[in-house]
Amino acid sequence: MRRSWPDRLGALLPEAIRRDLFLPALADLDHDRVRRSTGAARHALAVIALFLDCLRLQVRAPRKDLAAMFVRDVRQSFRIFRREPGFAAAAVVMLALGVGANTALFAVVEAVLLRPLPFANASEVVLVKHRDTRTGLTKSDLPVADFVDLAGRQKSFTALGGYYPYEGVLSSADEPARVYGALMTPAVFTILEVQPAMGRFFTADDLREGAARVVVISTELWRTQLGSDPAVLSRSIQLGRDRYAVVGVTAPGFRFPTNTPTDVILPARVPPAAPANRRSGWIYGVGRLNPGVTIDRAEADFNALSQAFEREFPTQNQGSQYYTESLRDAVVGDTRRPLLVLLAAVGFVLLIACANVGNLLLARSLGRQQELAMRLALGASRGRLIAQMLTEALVLSFVGGATGVAVAAAAAPALATLIPQAEAIPGLARVGVNTWVLVFSLAASLFAALLFSALASFGLTRDGARGALIGQRRMTMSGGAKRAATSLVAFEIALAVVLLIGAGLTLRSFANLIGVNPGFNDDGVLTLRVGLPAGRYADQPARSAGYRRLFAAIDAAPGIAATGAAMVMPLTGNNWTSGLVRADRPIQPGQRAPEVGWQSASGGYFRALGIPLKSGRLFDDRDTPDSPPVVIISEAIAQRFFPGEDAVGKRLMTGATTTAEIVGVVGDIKRSSLRDTPWADLYFPFERGSNNGTTLFVKTGGDAAAAFPAVRAAIRSVEPGAILVDPRPLSDIAAESAAVPKLAMRLLGGFAAIALVLAAVGIYGVMSYGVRRRTRELGTRLALGASRGQIIALVMKQGATLTAAGLVLGLVVGLYAARAMSSVLYGVEPWDPIALGAAAAVLAIAALGASYGPARRASRVDPAVTLASE
Question: Are 257 and 117 within 8 A, CB to CB?
Fold first, then answer.
């Protein structure tokens, strides 16, 4: 009999739904069709709607069943863990440790490397920098002449803007205040795509000669210094000797450059044409990539322009190369590589924690063999049991993960404070647990849960069920489970070795770095920025006389040994350079003078820092603004440019027609950072060319910080209106030069210690289980005459074999991983034998120590009791 189309449609449904739902409802539809004379089309639509409704129920029913089963498994998991509080607490603590450490460090990485910078489309903002290919020195600023030519000839940017750092004194009715900011060309605002909160930014009219002095101020300065005056755009402020009309207020939180507060912004005037002296001034360059232009293409563009400038201006541009760097890379600096290395290291800690929890689950499954075997024997599928184990692992993981997130929420801000120059990285001010960090924590917890469930499912077979039901007293893991347990411990040992190698390398690197002689003595040296009122110190003679009075007053204070001043703070990355030409050996036409470092310093600077005088004299009262030019050179310059000669008395070219006599030779110092080779430096007399603001260096007889009140009183006695900023011991500044290696050493050392403890716990657990499993064998050996020492040696041998396997794997992986750390190492190679040997020795001692406890317990087995129980 031929079936109707509704019958054929119903045949597509499962038999139970077809029989119980579809066919009875179809009969009702057929009855209504006859009784109400329903049309064929309407009846067909009703049948199709019935089929779809039954199909929906068929799809939803399993989902409801699965959801109910999952809820039951979750409840059952909590009941099980309440009955086993020791196991649950140990697993949660280890997971919280692993997930919490990873989440805290990822929160910092997210803030530093992943979070968008506070500018629109910040990935398109690029800085232009300068490299001297002859010396390898890099500079963040560009010669003004090259900036002008680059701005006119480059094709990669929408525009090339320029800016200078600015530091000045804001005079107000209250005490004068030090303010920071920048001088900017109007293009910078367009490049950053920022808008003022009030008023406007600069225009081309503000850059004309004779134009009124204007300033843009920050929202923070408007609030703190101007009382949030709504009529601020009709006011002016006093900066130094000049008054500036306020034309705009930046949006709250605006900082550019990001490494200093941007209290005020002044117009930067750049010449329309490149000056003839292409090394006469310096400016920072910033641009925004044109649509479709990559940073690599921009790099090639600027390389080509560098070569063109070198051909056109060989005397001044020889060896000058311009390159691009993304704004984020410039902000992050040398912090990126260490953070990524540390994130990988803390990932190892999570893996070790997961391995330990996996071993806990494997050991726990031994106690549940009877339960699982009974369920398998009664018809439960292996998949159903694995699903329950997965649920239990999920519960453990998410409880541990939630605890870890709570730990990370407290740890991440503290960790952020360890990042060098944290104030220059915008995201670190708001580091914490946000959506991305929670997603990362959730992913880590899910990873752990899947790993646990996979490990815990070892040995779930029908054969295992029959064996467990037959021999209830001798419940053991399957061969696969045993191999998994030992493999996990070897894996833990290997990861711990890698972390110990990293910790050893950074420790040796840091020891090398702090052992470096910078060429000066920072002990007991107080540094501070001082600014003299511009009105009373408007010219060079007035400033020179004012500083002489300051130095004399400070030297007269109790406990002060020497006072000096300099324009540049040592170990802060400064790389100012100048061409050096002997007056008696001028350079040949078409050649460029070799570059050396330079600094403006007073004679007291050398005495305060203990920089030794090798020959000649230091600067003194003879070096006035009206006296003939003089210069002091470093020992490296004397050896390089005056080999076999007495440099004192020789003359150097300091201009096209000006020469300066060398009056002294001093020791070399590491001016930029502790990692650098000693600079070849020129020192020009501070007494001849000082500014209203400078840095003082005060040698004290004890605690540098404690001497500040006496120094401040001495300065106030001479100039009550002086601005004093940032008093700090020079030793603190020197310590910051080693901040990145110190951060890596601290965190890697902490992670390595955690990994060592977790690995020892894992070894102890596996060895303890092995002893329990071999109790009858060990009892038999003792009954046959084996000594307790032989039993200890037998068990320790197993631990030693496991440790050796992990050590070999860890050393191989560690050697490869250490190469990624080369950028944070100093004076030590990635394959340093001392670090490798120390890591292996520490891990071996810890592993064998963890094995000794179970071995000693095995030697105390009572053969009579053991054999009788069997």
Answer: no
What number of other Cβ atoms are within 10 A of residue 372's Cβ? 20
Any bridge partners for residue 181, and if so which? Answer: 166, 264
* pLDDT tens string 533-564: 877 888 888 888 899 999 999 999 998 999 99
Any long-range contacts for 378-384 (C-beta under 8 Å, 24+ apart)? 382/460, 382/461, 382/462
Identify the bridge partners of residue 599 per DSSP, sorted by sequence position: 683
Q: Using alpha carbons, select from 272, 292, 407 the residue that is nearest to residue 349.
A: 407
Q: C-alpha 169: how far from its chain's center? A: 34
Task: Single out the residue of 442, 491, 478, 458 nearest to residue 809, CA to CA.
Answer: 491
How far is the C-alpha of 720 from the C-alpha of 512, rounded, in Å?
44
Rounded distance between C-alpha atoms, residue 98 and residue 451, angstroms:
14
The conformation of residue 104, written as its DSSP 8-state character, comes to: H
Q: Which of 264, 218, 227 is nearest to 244 (CA)?
A: 264
Whole-Å CA distances, 810 to 490, 501, 748, 750: 9, 9, 16, 18
Q: How confident is the model at residue 30 (pLDDT cuts 50, 70, 90)?
A: confident
272: preceding bond cis by omega (within 30 degrees): no
**723 by DSSP, 3-state: which?**
strand
β partners of residue 177: 170
- Within 10 A of 143 (CB to CB), how many other CB atoms are there? 24
93's tokens: 């603590």
Which amino acid is located at 672 in the chain? S
Are the C-beta atoms of residues 752 and 499 closer than 8 Å to each other? yes
Residues with Cβ within 8 Å of residue 778, at least 6 apart in sequence? 771, 791, 794, 858, 861, 866
CB-CB contact of 458 with 774 (8 Å): no
What is residue 407's three-state secondary structure? helix
The per-residue pLDDT for range 477-516, each reduced to its tens digit, is: 555 556 666 777 788 888 888 888 888 888 888 888 878 8
Token pair listed for 844: 């071996």
Residue 501 to residue 263: CA distance in whole angstroms: 46
Name the packing angle between helices 462-470 and 369-377 (round to 10°): 120
Report the relative pairing of strands 214-217 and 242-249 from DSSP bridges: parallel
Contacts of 321 (CB under 8 A, 6+ apart): 130, 131, 132, 133, 303, 306
Q: Which of these ranges, 130-139, 612-621, 681-690, has the smallest mean pLDDT?
A: 130-139
Report pLDDT for 247: 95
Asked whether the beta carbons of 717 and 553 are under 8 A apart, the reply is yes
Nearest to 800 by CA among 863, 741, 843: 843
Q: Which residues pair with 595 in a beta bridge?
A: 579
327 near 117, Cβ under 8 Å? yes
Who's near 648: CB < 8 A, 6+ residues apart? Answer: 615, 616, 662, 663, 664, 665
Q: Answer whether 608's CB lies under 8 Å from 710's CB.
A: no
Least confident of 298-307, 727-736, 752-761: 752-761
What stretches of 417-539 show up as alpha helix (H) in DSSP?
435-456, 462-470, 479-514
Cα dihedral angle (375, 381, 385, 388), rounded to 10 degrees?
-110
Using 50, 70 and 90 to split pLDDT, how confident is the model at 454? low
The 10 Å CB-count burial string (b at 16+, else e) for 498-527 is bbbbbbbbbbbbbebbeebebbbebebbbb
Which of 828, 821, 829, 838 is closest to 515 using CA atoms? 828
Write down the H helix ranges in 682-738: 708-718, 730-736
Q: Which amino acid is it at 530?
A: V
* φ, ψ for residue 142, nearest 5 deg: -120, 150
Cα–Cα dist 557/708, whole Å: 11
Residues 6+ apart with CB under 8 A from 794: 778, 781, 855, 858
Are the beta carbons of 670 and 575 closer than 8 angstroms?
no
CA trace torsion 134, 139, 145, 146 (10° rounding): 70
